[in-house]
Amino acid sequence: MPALVKRVMGAFVVGPWSVDDDSGVHTDWLWVSDDGKEQVKYSIAIAGPTMGYSPGTFLFAMSKSPQLTWVAGSVDGYAGGFIAEDAPDYTLTDMLLKTRYNEGRSSALAGISLDGERGLIVPGPYTGAFATFARDGSLVGAAQVAESLGTCWRHVPTEHGNAFLQDIHLWEFSASGEILVDYDPGRSRKDTCPVVALTDDGIAILAYEEDSSWHLHRVGHNGSASEELWEARPGIPLALASLGDVALVVSHLDDGTLVRVKDGEAEMFPLPEVPSARAIPAEPGKLFLDLSDPKGAVREIVEIGCAD
To answer: Which of 123, 194, 199, 304 sits 20 to 30 Å CA-CA off 165?
Structure first.
């Protein structure tokens, strides 16, 4: 698999990835401008030690600089810190959560905001614990606890904070680590995991629910919520984008389909490269797909517009 691509500060970050060559062991990543014309490669020769934490559990390039933020788990909990060009050791900054890493019964989930200022760590889908961290790995605000979570879950980067979706239950966190929104329609998904995207004033969730129907939930940053029933049948969705009253869904239907819905009317267009694509969460109305060949050296990122 090629290195993951994230959207940060209106640009793209490819990686980081580990390299072991004649120069030694180092971690590299690439900062790419929105149009792809500016590309800056960074490299840090990581020295250690890791102080008992799993090295590289999560590594994030949160700024356009030779510094990485790390979050890692141990039997004592999850900690955060950083490594930098002038400080290649794993510098421990803060204990983020005292929940043991194996209490989640699966791998943890973490991600960063679109402005690269804040990250969110969730130890596992059954722990109900969240913590917000800064670029240096320090805890922001207080760790949050919610009811026990389920199995279908994903991180949602917002402009200045982060959100977390479990089935159709959404938590949004501010830049100060506080819970802004706790939205739960009280129903369950069916068969497939929902897709989610930022909107002009909040977050949209498209879910196939227990009534065997598709529902589009629009949740405002202020906690307001609305819902509409979709007659469109998008199959197994990969990604969602929403701007105004227009919604786009990239689906695995018929080996790749783009579904455009406006005012309840759906149009479908073939999109043949979907089976190998990876969605990149982005700003409202923007839908990026990473179409890179897993065995190739060239990265291909495609933007699908959501404008009317």
So the answer is: 304
Q: How many CB atoms lie within 10 A of CB 39?
A: 12
C-alpha to C-alpha distance for 86 and 300, rounded to whole angstroms = 32
Task: Read off the pTM.
Answer: 0.90
* 174 and 201 part of one domain: no
Q: Are residues 62 and 169 in the same domain?
A: yes
C-alpha span between 199 and 177 (Å, rounded): 21
Number of compact structural domains in the chain: 2
Cα 148 to Cα 46: distance, rounded to the nearest angstrom? 37
- Of the three residues 161, 184, 207, the one that is the final residue of a domain is 184
Question: Domain range for residue 169?
Answer: 1-184
What is the rounded distance in angstroms from the CA atom of residue 257 to the CA atom of residue 262? 16
Distances (CA, A) of 89 to 84, 143, 153, 252: 8, 26, 32, 43
Show pLDDT as tens, one digit a residue, over the chain (308 residues).
Answer: 567 899 999 999 999 988 888 888 888 999 999 988 999 999 998 765 555 555 457 889 999 999 999 998 877 788 999 999 888 788 889 999 887 655 444 568 889 999 999 999 988 666 678 899 999 999 999 988 776 566 788 899 999 999 999 889 999 999 999 999 999 998 888 888 899 999 999 999 999 998 999 999 999 999 999 999 888 877 888 899 998 888 999 988 887 889 998 877 888 898 877 767 889 999 998 989 998 776 666 778 888 877 65
Please check whether residues 149 and 288 belong to one and the same domain.
no
